[in-house]
TrEMBL record:
Enzyme Commission code: 3.5.1.2
Catalytic activity: L-glutamine + H2O = L-glutamate + NH4(+)
Gene name for this UniProt entry: glsA
Residues of the full protein shown: 9 to 320 of 623
Keyword Acetylation: yes
Key words, A-Z: Acetylation, Hydrolase
Organism from which the protein derives: Kaistia hirudinis
Positions that bind substrate: 68, 118, 162, 169, 193, 245, 263
GO-annotated molecular function: glutaminase activity
Keyword Hydrolase set for record: yes
Protein name (Swiss-Prot/TrEMBL): Glutaminase
Recorded family membership: Belongs to the glutaminase family.
Lineage of producing organism: Bacteria, Pseudomonadati, Pseudomonadota, Alphaproteobacteria, Hyphomicrobiales
Enzyme class: hydrolase
Assembly notes: Homotetramer.
GO BP of this protein: glutamate biosynthetic process; L-glutamine catabolic process
Amino acid sequence: QPVSADGPIADYLSDLHFRISRLGGGNVASYIPELAKADPNLCGIAIATTDGKIYAVGDADHAFTIQSVSKPFVYGYALARYGRETVLQRVGVEPTGEAFNSIVLDDKHNRPFNPMVNAGAIAVAETIRGKSDDERVANMLDLFSRLAGRQLDIDEAVFRSERDTGHRNRAIAYMMLNTGMIRRPPEEILDIYFRQCAVKVTCVDLAVMGATLANKGINPLTGQRALPEEYIPDILTVMNSCGMYNYAGQWSYEVGIPAKSGVAGSIMAAIPGQIGIAVFSPPIDEHGNSVRGVAACREIAHDFGLHVFKTS
Ligand code: GLN
């Protein structure tokens, strides 16, 4: 992907990076043992525009696993495959106010609260087409590769590490088997879910994926459609209300842009018709959001006037 190094946006980003990369606080995620090896000093920021320009600073080309930033995209895939009504029977659109990995379903419908928490994402992962693990992996990678505009792969070490230790997600999957929210064998669904979380991306990739959402589902670099335009508002709405987990309310209040975070330390945001933003820095706070990522997005949203409800 061609990155623009000059101009006011590039200058702005290097200033921002200089300040943000020096911030302390947070800890690298360690509940997935392989993630604990991440260098806490890494810090990259990238912006991609809907007309195909990319601006990037710091460690924007460093590869990490996408983790929960995968969730909005697979939700879009499920909507495209089965439509709103069917998907709504398996996953709601209510924020939980609870941790991303909480073992809870809404007690009216017995379904996961929303597709941005693990329970909802695991339910949604069942919709990935394929008769074998290999076919499902190929289809899942095809989705992410279209979104990023280049062929993406899985970080096998992170995948195995989470598969071997992700018993909390196993508990969630079995609870949903019990309520009929998933129908296929939990291990089969967890296999694709853990692999989806272990897709290797860079900040530049995530910025392009955000720009694809901002561009009505068409990747601005390749011109290829990755998701149907019809479901982009669904994706952005749940990102807005649930993307930052139990920090989502404060995030909307202060930053006011639809975004999604992942425990490897990334945050991706999308501003419809304008840009995708991505920040990567491994230390995360108590909600599971990158400390430097939150700080950088807060500044970008303020400086570019991006808060959806702030008009001046
Ligand atoms: N793979 C991680 C999990 O299921 C994703 C969580 C996250 O990024 N918040 O726990």
